[in-house]
């Protein structure tokens, strides 16, 4: 176990050389238009050094932790898109995993894809994975992804940059854990998961 986290610490240290500018801590707050959801987000255990982004105010079978503090890491060259500064600079969502004898190990979010469905689940893992998901916060502190291609055009063409907000709160099943998680819809339509409810995600600094 010590070897595992020693390696994780080295990977985290190496990745920190790239995404080495850390924001102040914040909560992620989810809200829906109908008022059914108004909840902060927790980092919920889904495996060894793996956490999903679950809603704090739920009665899920896998009990969520109290809300957590997250961070946003960027590089020294991160800048908002020219002429679209409202989209914000891209970076990665980070969180610190508390580990006995090792202190807090930095983790960052990637998207877990299941090819049998039309949504992706953000998962936090130690260090910076190769497939880390880049995100951004708008000038209104809303969490988005940025796009550059118009996939509705025939043929598809460059159309960016533009902001995408395809966040949902959905009941998920991952590695035996059941949570109401923050989920990203793959495509313009609502995910097929019948429990999904459209949400906005905003950071609130602590």
UniProtKB/TrEMBL annotation:
Matches recorded under InterPro entries: DUF7907 (IPR057229)
Pfam families listed in its UniProt record: DUF7907
DUF7907 domain sequence ranges: 23-204
Protein's name in the database: DUF7907 domain-containing protein
Record organism: Phaeosphaeria nodorum (strain SN15 / ATCC MYA-4574 / FGSC 10173)
